[in-house]
Amino acid sequence: MRAPGYTAERGRAGFKYAVHDRDADVLLAVEGERIVGLASVYADILSIRYGPRCWLQDLVVTASHRSRGIGAQLMGSASDWARERGCTHLELSSGAGRNDAHRFYLSQGMSQSYNFGKQVE
To answer: Whole domain around residue 59: which residue ranges?
Structure first.
């Protein structure tokens, strides 16, 4: 589902930021010459309680390549990326109805908590 107000230009700008900023990156899963998955990662805040946090965003695997371990590899790469930058934990947000995604995250060692959000546009 696209975010409210999403445009292709905003997507391009966000992608460029993630690729070029030293505290962000786009991790790719590639099969041959085809991208079959990606995850964007951001070393985004220094939490008083936990220390540096890595935010995992946009974890996506093409439908034809799901259940092949690609998501797990991307999660592992995201954890490695975070660790290399001194982050103490990895977090993500997922919609309430995404039960398959939630089972996957739990199988990857993540704990479930509540996130609240508010659009401020």
So the answer is: 8-107
